[in-house]
Structure formats: C-alpha cells, structure tokens
Amino acid sequence: MIELAGDLAAWFADPARWTGTAGIPNRMLEHVVLSGLAVLVAAGIAVPAGLLIGHTNRGALLAVSVANIGRAVPSLALLIVFVSVLGLGFRNALVVLVLLAIPPILTNTYAGMRGVDRDVVEAGSGMGMAPATLLWRVELPLAVPAIVAGARTAAVQVVATATLAALVGGGGLGRYIVDGFAVRDEARLLGGAVLVALLALATERAMTLLERRLTSPGLGLATTGARPARG
Amino acid sequence: MDEFLARNGAMLADGLARHLLLTGIAVGVGLALSLALALVAWRRRRLIPLVTGTTGLLYTIPSLALFAFLVPFTGLTLLTAEIGLVSYTLLILVRNILAGLDAVPADVREAADGMGHTGVQRLLRVDLPLALPLALAGVRIATVTTVGLVTVTALIGEGGLGQVMLRAFNLQNWGLVYASVGLMVALAVALDLAILGLGRALTPWTRAGGRS
Known about the structure:
The structure holds two protein chains of two kinds. Chain A has ten helices and no strands. Chain A is mainly α. Chain B is mainly α. In chain B, α1 packs antiparallel against α6 (about 120-150). The radius of gyration of chain B is 20 Å and the shape is elongated. The N and C termini of chain B lie far apart (about 45 Å). The interface of A and B includes residues 84, 156, 164 and 201 of A.
C-alpha cells in the first residue's frame, strides 16, 4: 500500500509525464476537447428539439423513447459498434458521445418546458406576447434550470465514456488506464484513475455552479432533474 | 445463420448467463445495502445529505477509473467487478426508496398508528408496501444501467457478453460483435419489462382507481 503510493507519487513527479503527446497536459486537453465538443453539439441538437416538443406538446412519445433506448444500449457497445461505420479515432468517439449526451438533455429540456406553470404562459399570451416571444421570454427562462441539469448529467456521463474512448483510438486520459491494464503497470493505472476521477468531479462541480449562475434570480434555487444513465 | 450459431451459440449463451448473473448479484446486493441506508437515513433525517452525498460521489467517478482504483487491491476478480457495479446502483436506489417512503401520506401513517401498529409493523405493512412503486422504478433504472456497466467489466476479465464483444472486436468478427450487442440490449429490455410486470403484480392497488 505504502509502496504503491510511492510509485504513484513517482509517476506524477516524472518530468516526462508533463510533456509530449503522452504527457498529462496533452491527454487532459484531448479528454476535455472531446467531451466539451460532444456536449456542445448534443445541446445544439437536443435543446431546440426539446423546446419545440415542449412548446408544441407534440412528439413527447419520441422524446421518452429516445431516452429509454439511450439507456438500454451500453456506451462501450456503442463505441465499438460505430467503429464498423466510422473507423477508429476521434470522429467515431465524438459521434458516439454526442449520441449518448442527447437523451438526458432532450428529456430534461422537455420536462423543464412541461413544468412551466400554465398560468404564467396564459398571463404572457394575455399580455399580447407572440408565441416566439412567449417561448424566448417566458418559457425558456423558466425551463433553464432543468435544461442545465440535463447538460450536467450529460457532461458527467460524457467525461466517463470519453475514458472508454481510449479503447477505440479516441485518446484522452483513458489511455493511461487502458495501457496500464495492458502492461500491468499499477502506477500508470492509478495515476490515470486519479486524473479521470478528478476531471469528472470537477465537471460535476462546474456544471452545478453554471446551473446556479443561469437560474433566473426570481426562481430561487430550485434543483431539478433526475440523473438517468451513466457510462 | 445455422453455421454462425453452431460456431458461436455456446459462447453467446455462456456470455448471456454470466451477464445475467453479474447483473443479478449487483442489483441484489445493491438493493439490500440501499434499503438499509435509506431506512437509517429516513429515521435520522440529518444523515440524508451524508448518504446521498457519498453515493452521489461514487456515482460520479467514471466506471473505468473506479475499476482501475480497485484492481491493485482486489485484483482481476469477480469481487472487483461487483464492488464497482454495486456502488453504482446505490445512488439511484437510495434516492428512489427515500422518495417512495416520503410519498406515504401522513394520514395513512397516522391511521396505522391509531390502529395500534408498532413501529416495525407499520414499516412492514404500510410504509414499505406504499413505497414500492417508486422503489421499483429505481430498481428498473439501476438494473438497465448495470446491464450496460457489466460490459465495461470485460476490461478486468469479467464482462459476460461484453467479454464476447471485445474478443470479437479484436478478431474483427463483426457478426459476433452485433450478436453480442443485440443480446445485451435484449437483456436490458427483458429485465426492465420483467420488473415492470413484477411491480404491477405486487401493487394491485395502484391500478384500482386511476393510473399511476
């Protein structure tokens, strides 16, 4: 145990660990870029779709089905199956992570829109707001906490699954763990695990802060949203 | 097709059985632990933030990292796989059991007390049965999630169908990859429906009036 802690400290202290392609800064950057891009693209698809479904109240069944299917397909299986379509590498990992991030954001956006008090919406249209204004000025601000909670769930899940992407040539911090397993190097294995765990916890923390920042002051601090699948 | 099954059928069946076993142990142990944690937290509400905070922390740690943490201590074993799998069921189950217990109407609880139930009797005959629908909703989510996570344990020598999938992937045997993934999804859906059916059978009162 003490020996292992020493090995781990030596692994982090090695100057070679902090430069080059296989260095921690580069692997961290790969991981963050892949995850961040995936969540942004997924939000770009899922938020408008969820707003539309919530606003028109059409296609709700589709939203629920997408969420359920998303949960039943294991993320590692998705990463591997898509290799047959997109090959090994960054592009495959990105597409799969986007697919995984869509369901939580879509369902939370839809649920957030559904949760908007009908009286408030009626008051808005009684004041003469056009449907687009109503969506933008009334429904969206009220749904934001739920939407960001969905994005938080998605982001934590994506950071976790991006670790698995190392198996299919996606780079990132998962490389330390996958390689550590392959060559039975416990220091590398633990070092990778520490970095990945810290990144996941930091992501969760950052998204929680973002949620508070974006919540309209009038709403107080209502915490919303369930945490569905993980990878 | 016949030839494919003749060559891979036994491996797929073994993988499926192992996958089911790994999932069953994880959800079973997870449920027992969660019930204990939820009941303690329900009695002493001050403990709720501690319990949900700790299980939430475990839930946030990526699965591959958690397995990597454990391997130097417990090795490439079934125990390592199950520690990881069980710890991911806890947050969902504890939360849903607590939500179920909190949803028991105060009137019903008072009526039970008025009828002379002791604390334990009320728990077993009133509180837990009424908490069942929400608790089982948690079991469904935990089960489907676990079926997916079992796949990841292929990296530490377990994995059930995940092991079959990774081996097939390394041999570029795509037919076998698709077959194993198809079985994983089928297993998740089948277990989900089975628990849904079990829940309906156990809670006939939820269908008496409206829907729930």
